[in-house]
């Protein structure tokens, strides 16, 4: 893997931008779509091998830890864990889309707070350092939900990097699983 070693700064910047205004989290859509576009175009995992800021964060944090890594569980590499993560990802996206549609249709109030693992509300408000005027409530709802999903998966990946090898998350990352399915076809 040849990811540039300072790419992790983009990940930190992404989460800091959310503290300034949550709507910047919609840039995360690029991190979900660009890897797949590159797989389709290059017939290889160009994003994972060169540009992924999250992988750079895991590598940086995982390599700087002061204790030795545990062996990566076999069910991460050869078992069903990646399919479980893909299912979690699919369920999250479905909930995000359905609830955003509900807000857009006016049958649901926007949720303007973060949730960990879809259902656990975090007990603090995001400081919003500046407002963007005339944003539709559904877009604000979508932004909070998207930030929550990115925060959850990044946090899980960091825990794995600290316990196992730095890029253990990559063995079960939904983007990698979808990329593998595309490449096999
Ligand atoms: S598997 Fe996921 S986290 Fe790892 S490099 Fe690819 S997109 Fe990034």
Briefly, what is this?
With 185 residues, the chain is mainly α. It is built from nine helices and two strands.
SSE layout and pairings?
Elements: H1 8-20, H2 28-42, H3 46-51, H4 53-64, H5 74-77, H6 81-104, E1 115-116, E2 120-121, H7 137-163, H8 169-172, H9 174-184
Helix pairs in contact: 1-4, 2-9, 4-7, 6-7, 6-9
This protein binds iron/sulfur cluster (SF4).
**How big is the Rg?**
17 Å
Task: Tell me which ligands are bound.
Answer: iron/sulfur cluster
What structural category do the secondary elements indicate? mainly alpha
- Apparent shape: globular
Question: Describe it for me?
Answer:
It is a single chain. 63% of the residues lie in helices and 2% in strands. Helix 4 runs parallel beside helix 7. The chain has one domain (8-184). It is mainly α. It has helices at 8-20, 28-42, 46-51, 53-64, 74-77, 81-104, 137-163, 169-172, 174-184, and strands spanning 115-116, 120-121. A two-stranded antiparallel sheet has the order 1-2. It binds iron/sulfur cluster. Iron/sulfur cluster is lined by residues 35, 47-48, 52, 54-55, 169-170, 173, 175-176. The site of iron/sulfur cluster (SF4) has 11 residues, from helix 3, helix 4, helix 8 and helix 9.
